[in-house]
């Protein structure tokens, strides 16, 4: 897949990925980028995650808190809030449905009504 | 260390932009801490700070800030903040307000003092105003900024009324009104003086100039190098991949990179 297309597709789901990472354990920005890259999303641009984290915070899905560091400035960690857990479950279900639909279209299958 | 300086510069530029575009100070402080920590961690792993902020630092700073503002309205651009234009405009507004308050205070004081002194007749006020006008106009010739000229014009108008034996209150009100109106009129010229473009310095001297691509410009990969006259510069584009050997034109400068576009004139 071309770099540009991958970036566009990722742009639409990056907030969901960040929420999923934070749901696993509280993380700070750079750590999240590293985790995204480790899991194959190397195109996640570092500059794009902070606006998304701010948005998730404004929507009260996550909250940030500062932790003193022995090296360098304090780190801002993010942890998930109850509304964030709910939203992540909804997003996961929607993503599942979307990818199944896309796969069926790409592979020529028919929809199975449940 | 040059990397530390670059991190510091980026953080300082972003923070200045956030504060001047109405991001609350507390939030900007937190964002600064977060960005600084991220850049330091990235550089300690061998990444360049520009990889973190992307090819266009203005877009990076704005994307982050836009999530933090509660109010809408016109905001200064990144270039405005970088060049200090927005700060100059804000200072000019404060200076205008201070000027109006000073003139109002002088008017009120002069009116009260003059009113209490019934002995001062029109003859005296004629000379007070005339001398004040002359002193202000001469003073204006030796100072910069058109600060005294409006006072001089106001005093001249009041002197004229004194010659026609108009009441003292009217003289002072005229002094106040004419001084303020003159000030607003004179400021237009001061503003026009500021409109002249400063001589470009540093990398700005390359704005709108032609360059040759030495290394293919790929904003997604963060690569790209051009040659300007005898100097080589890192370059990026607004999304377009531009092959080595192409002729390009410099659109703007972000940080230490030239943002270029294909030169359609060739």
Could you please describe the fold and organization of this structure?
The complex is a heterodimer of chains A (114) and B (266). With 114 residues, chain A is of the alpha+beta class. Chain A is 62% helix and 12% strand. Chain A has a three-stranded antiparallel β-sheet. In chain A, helix 1 (3-24) runs antiparallel to helix 4 (82-107). Chain A starts with a helix and ends in a 7-residue tail after the last helix. The relative contact order of chain A is 0.14. The model of chain A has no long low-confidence stretch (mean pLDDT 87). Chain B has helices at residues 2-20, 25-44, 49-53, 57-66, 78-83, 85-116, 122-142, 149-163, 168-194, and strands at 210-218, 223-228, 231-236, 247-254, 257-262. Chain B is elongated. Helices cover 58% and strands 13% of the residues of chain B. Chain B has a five-stranded mixed beta barrel. Chain B starts with a helix and ends with a strand. The longest helix of chain B is centred in the middle third of the chain and has 32 residues, at 85-116. By secondary structure, chain B is of the alpha+beta class. The interface between A and B is medium-sized, with 24 and 25 residues.
List the helices and strands and how they pair.
The complex is a heterodimer of chains A (about 110) and B (about 270).
Chain A: H1 3-24, E1 27-28, H2 29-38, H3 46-58, E2 62-67, E3 75-80, H4 82-107
Antiparallel strand pairs in A: 1-3, 2-3
Helix pairs in contact in A: 1-3, 1-4
Chain B: H1 2-20, H2 25-44, H3 49-53, H4 57-66, H5 78-83, H6 85-116, H7 122-142, H8 149-163, H9 168-194, E1 210-218, E2 223-228, E3 231-236, E4 247-254, E5 257-262
Parallel strand pairs in B: 3-5
Antiparallel strand pairs in B: 1-2, 1-4, 2-3, 4-5
Helix pairs in contact in B: 1-2, 1-4, 6-9, 7-8, 8-9
